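I had to read the description of the data format several times before I understood it. In essence, backbone conformation is discretised, so a fold becomes a row of integers matching the chain in length. I therefore recommend that a typical entry be quoted early in the introduction. For illustration, here is how one protein appears when written out as sequence plus structure tokens.

***
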Amino acid sequence: MTGQIDQDVPLLSPGREQIQAWTQLMLVTANALRQRRMELGQAAWSQQRAAARTAQQYANDLDPRVRAMAAADEAAFREAGASGAEGFEHRTSDEPQFGWTVHTTAGPMPENSPSGTRGAWGLWAHGSYHEKSLSVFVVVPDRESALRLRDEVTRGEQRTLKSLGELGTYGFLRAEHARTEVREDEVQLRERLAHGLHTAWAHDPGLVAGVLRPARDENDVDYSSIDQLAHKLSRLEDRGYAIEDVLGRLDTGAIRAWYDQQDQELCNLAGYTSSLVSQVADRLQVVDAVQVDPVVSREVDQTLAQGLHEAGVESDRVYRSRNFGQVKAQLTDLRSDGHDLTPLLAGLPGEKINEAGDPAAYLRAVLEKRARSSRPTEATAEAGRAAAEAETGIHRTGPDLGPAERMMRRYLAPETADSVIGCRAWPGLAKQLLAWKEEGAPVAEELARLPEDRVRSAGTPAGYLKTLLRRGVDFRENEARKAGEVSGRERDAQHAARVRDLTEVDESRRAGPVTEAVRDGVPPSPFEVRELDPTNAVERTALEMSRGAGTVEDDAYIAEILAAPDPGEVWSKFNRAAEARGRAVDAEQQAAAHARTPDDLDTRPREDLIGQDEAGIDRRRADRESAIAHAEESGVPTAAALRAEIAHRPPTTEPGAAARSETRPASPAPPAPTRQATHAPRPRR
């Protein structure tokens, strides 16, 4: 076909206008979903992604931007600053800061300090005001951060030493809490090993330096022996024995004698110390594949073999069964809690166990039923462990994660249990499981119905499993609480009403998500995040460290204001919007008060509904303030908001107001506002 084409050629793809309309619709939908998610308190719609974000926040808290210095670090930093070490800078405030004269010392953390092994910098700020004085020591990641914080407390009365001290204290609290929620990486674990050595062997710093000295070859530095010692102490810590307590029980005199006989540049002092720690662990009877008291494990094996033999059960089929590990963990838990296993394993249904396709699973069901009516009979559940602690002089000061591990292996498949226990977020889940066990929460029912495939494939299996269990346990507890309230109302209506007022559950959050930060006990931020100025170094750092301690809306606000190219403008926009919204609320309240004001019917001549006219004025003012607040949040210039067309609200008679008089002539109605007609563009066909 030839010739000029008079019409547009139809296209298979949508036009530009349709694409723009579709994009705008998607943005509006995404914003609405985001707002709804924040109203529900969810960090993400996906539970797996929310768990991964929570675990990452804990990992960030392990190394906060600003944290208070340890006591051993303070001494080393003071000494390095006084001796004129390289890189140290001293400054005194030119003018008093809030009446205080401030002296600062900033410099790299010394190599012999527990927190100075990763190139961190320290800041020491000392202030004096007449007879008062205050010293603040903080650790920051780099020189730039140290100098920025130093300038904040020495120039222009920007921030006080107290603000800097609160920032460091809060960072320390967050780091200590995160250490019980996620596992540390290799470098962080080495730092804590260094701190433990400095604390336990403070009298011999040379020996501490020898343990922390890595092996060197021609091309690289080898930390394998140091990491082996750190991981061994970490496993003991999981059983409740502090690193400082274990190291403090070692014979440092014998270690020093051995060290002096060796070539100190070539000997492996960390490996030698690790062998001594293994000997202590053997005496404590905790080095075992399943972390069980050997006395308990031996009794479980003997009692189980005797019970199977007396019942005529084919023991080989039970031992080779896929679920035998769960049976062993179940019996171990019962025995560790003080139950007598002999009556539990007496008179087993041998024929039914032999005929079952999975004899271990059938045996587990039998034991589960019998355990419901069993009661602890012994005061000391693990006599062997208690005797070992008395012998070595080391006692548990922290939680024992062994029962939590056995619980995982009891209810989950082996590969699922391995993925959960090997996850970095395992300590937080284990701690929560132990707390639920003490409270008698229905954890077993939730573990029995878990989607194990999704748990294994999750990025953080332990964090995802913790989220699933928490939702299930909260739902069951809330349902049980409601059932108790119904039963109470039937027995005594008045008493049930009083209990209901005290224990009422919010329906909107009954089966909804629970804020991780609130339930996990994250230290609450001591700062008002909406009042922190992001252009200030101290307060910007406080904003960064406040993530995860408040609501999801607070986290969204922090992320937006820190990522903005002009944080000051974003901060002022939020403040202006909040002020306008507050003025709108005040105007609405005044309008409601005026609307409820009746007029005097006996007044001649009477003004037509004076209170209602005032209410109309207040409503229009409220509409104006709401428009300004919306414009501020949307980034519209304030001038455009002031010119926004406000819908006219005619005066109305509220309930309780005076009725209009029939004899008084009606006042002429004001002219209706005219609007310029606008026509929507027609879609191109």
Remarks:
- The longest strand covers residues 121-129.
- The CA atoms of residues 116 and 171 lie 16 Å apart.
- Residues 502-519, 603-609, 638-685 have pLDDT under 50 and may be disordered.
- The chain is about 55% helix and 5% strand.
